[in-house]
Amino acid sequence: QTRGRYKSKLYSATDCFLGLTMEQKCELAERALMEMKDETQRMKEDSEQTLQNLEAVLEEADVWWADVKKAIGDFEEDLISTISSKKGNIIASEKLLRYLEGKNRQRDLLREKLHAKNYVLMGYKKKLQQQLRQDWMGETICEVRLQQLHIRNAQCQEKTDLKNQELLQLKLTLGKMVKVLNLYKRKLHDAMEMSKSLMKDVSHRKELLEEIEREAAHVEEQRAEAESVNRQLRKQLSDYRVPSVLSYVRKIMAVSDLEKSLKAWETKVAVAKVS
């Protein structure tokens, strides 16, 4: 009965386990396991005690049956043999009285023995009832503790819900911040790419400017040489004396070539200055 009541209490308390944490469930499971082990040990001890009592009763019954057989044998041996003799009626009556008195004394002794045994059994019964009462009180305390744990679990669940809401809000804020950060990262990346492109463009323009400056210097040198040649030619023209016709024609052609070359160089110089 104790085991059945314990199981019913245990099964009725399983509904409270649904809202408990894993540590609380483990603690309650360990406690229930220890109680089941204690209950099993007590049942084992009770069974052993009951078995010993039954063995004692069987031994007592065997002894009593042996006494009965012996009494029957003695009765048949003493009384029946005495009654069958001539003077056996008086002797048999006396023996019967003594036999009955002895049996009465044995019955009184047995009654006292049974009273003592009954007293011991009553004490054992009270002890078992006290143990059952303690078990019931322990189960009641377990139920109270389960209710307290359920209340604490509900409070912890409320706190957990609040923390989860705060965590969700923080996650939303973090998501927005991550989006803004990614936007600024993209802008920074675009700015860096533009800066690299501008740096390359500036470097290319510097190289182009250096090349133009080198070409301008080279053209300036050629222009100076052309002006020097032009001055020499003009000096020669100023010092010119009328040559022969053939020489004149050659000179005219040379001058024409020089003028063409001069115009070409002047054009190059003008283009170089413009660029």
Automatic annotation (TrEMBL):
Which is a Gene Ontology cellular component entry for this protein?
Answer: ciliary basal body
A single Gene Ontology biological process assigned to it is:
cilium assembly
Which superkingdom heads the taxonomic lineage of this protein's source? Eukaryota
Presence of keyword Coiled coil = yes
What InterPro entries is this protein classified in? Answer: CC_CF, CCDC113/CCDC96_CC
Residues in coiled coil: 26-57, 202-239
* The UniProt record lists the keyword Chloroplast: no
Quote any Pfam family the record assigns.
CCDC113_CCDC96_CC
Q: Where is the CCDC113/CCDC96 coiled-coil domain?
A: 106-270
Which keywords does this chain's UniProt record carry?
Cell projection, Cilium biogenesis/degradation, Coiled coil
Tell where it localizes.
Cell projection, Cilium
User: What PANTHER family does the entry give?
Assistant: COILED-COIL DOMAIN-CONTAINING PROTEIN 113, COILED-COIL DOMAIN-CONTAINING PROTEIN 113-RELATED
The record's family statement is: Belongs to the CFAP263 family.
* Protein name (record): Cilia- and flagella-associated protein 263
Organism of origin: Rhynochetos jubatus (kagu)
